[in-house]
Specification:
Layout: H1 2-27, H2 30-33, H3 37-63, H4 70-89, H5 93-121, H6 125-147, H7 149-159, H8 169-189, H9 197-223, H10 229-239, H11 254-282, H12 285-306, H13 309-319
Helix pairs in contact: 1-3, 1-4, 1-5, 3-6, 4-5, 5-6, 5-7, 5-11, 5-13, 7-11, 8-9, 8-10, 8-11, 9-12, 11-12, 11-13
């Protein structure tokens, strides 16, 4: 059993290294697309940290007579460039970039939480310490990004062609609806992939909330007199960034599923934080209040998901034939 646990730890380290490779692909180009000097500076600062993370995970693998997965690294590197291309093609590039950066930090934070737990079970203290240190730096970056929402929204609005600020609100709402639809697809699938009653309950409960969010956003769009075609346009536009395509190299273990769900919460949080600010600037108090209401649910869901990391690590190990 010790050998199987050791093999699983090596797999988690390999995945962590691949995720850092994708992060580097994003961070090397992100400052040029940031639009805001503050956001660009945050990306440059985190690039140096991420180079250290890549080096640390690679050295930990080498110490185990293992090596990074070249196939995964190539896939993840391409995926990182795909995120940037998507953001660059949007009229509000700085805002989309921040939302996806927030989400990616969530993915990294969750991945290192899981890695630390697997390493603890394997009595690999050096890996535990490295994972916890990197996790803390990812959390700090996530917090820095959230402090930069105001200047990023300003930069996004300056980049977005418009005649009237209010005309942008339906577009932000349509994008939010498209993301909720992606979340529904993920949450409908999730309970079928886990055996833990705790995980199943968390996913099932938030699925109900997410369906409500999609309906509320659609109702607000209708109240603003928006053309239903905007929902189709947003679905097509954001469908090109279906996160699942960037993680096909990762098996649907409970741990990966929880990490992915946690990251997706921050994609939604970033979007609704920006919607709220755009609505406030346009004097649309109803849309701002709706965004704030949904934000409370998304933040609560992220907290609930983070509370399942230990359960997810144990269930993933059991699914791999290792006692959790």
């Amino acid at each position: 059993m010790a050998r199987e646990l050791d093999e699983q730890l090596t797999k988690y380290l390999t995945d962590a290294h691949s995720i850092e490779v994708q992060a580097l692909a994003q961070l090397r180009k992100a400052p040029d697309l940031a639009g805001s000097s503050e956001l660009a500076a945050a990306f440059r600062e985190h690039l140096a940290e991420t180079e250290g993370h890549e080096r640390t995970t690679r050295e930990l693998l080498e110490a185990r007579d293992a090596s990074p997965s070249k196939v995964k690294d190539v896939v993840m590197g391409i995926g990182g460039k795909g995120f940037l291309l998507f953001a660059q093609l949007q009229p509000d590039t700085p805002g989309k970039l921040l939302s996806h950066a927030l989400s990616y930090e969530g993915l990294e934070l969750a991945s290192y939480e899981l890695l630390a737990r697997v390493a603890a079970r394997a009595d690999e203290e050096a890996v535990v310490q490295a994972a916890e240190r990197i996790r803390d730096e990812e959390r700090a970056m996530q917090e820095r990004l959230q402090l930069l929402l105001e200047p990023t929204v300003t930069a996004a609005l300056e980049a977005h062609p418009r005649d009237d600020l209010a005309t942008l609100i339906p577009k932000y709402l349509a994008d939010a609806h498209a993301i909720e639809e992606q979340a529904i697809g993920l949450l409908e699938r999730a309970p079928k992939l886990v055996e833990s009653a705790e995980l199943e309950t968390v996913f099932a409960d938030h699925l109900g909330e997410t369906r409500d969010h999609a309906e509320l956003v659609q109702e607000r769009l209708h109240a603003l007199g928006d053309d239903p075609s905007s929902l189709k346009d947003a679905a097509m536009r954001l469908g090109a960034l279906n996160w699942g395509t960037f993680f096909q190299g990762h098996p649907d273990t409970p741990g990966k599923l929880v990490a992915f769900a946690y990251a997706f919460e921050y994609l939604e949080i970033g979007g609704y934080e920006q919607l709220k600010r755009v609505a406030e600037r346009a004097g649309d108090s109803e849309t701002a209040a709706l965004a704030e209401r949904i934000l409370e649910d998304e933040r609560a869901a992220a907290t609930k998901i983070s509370g399942t990391f230990d359960t997810a690590a144990g269930e993933s190990l059991r699914a791999a034939g290792v006692a959790g």
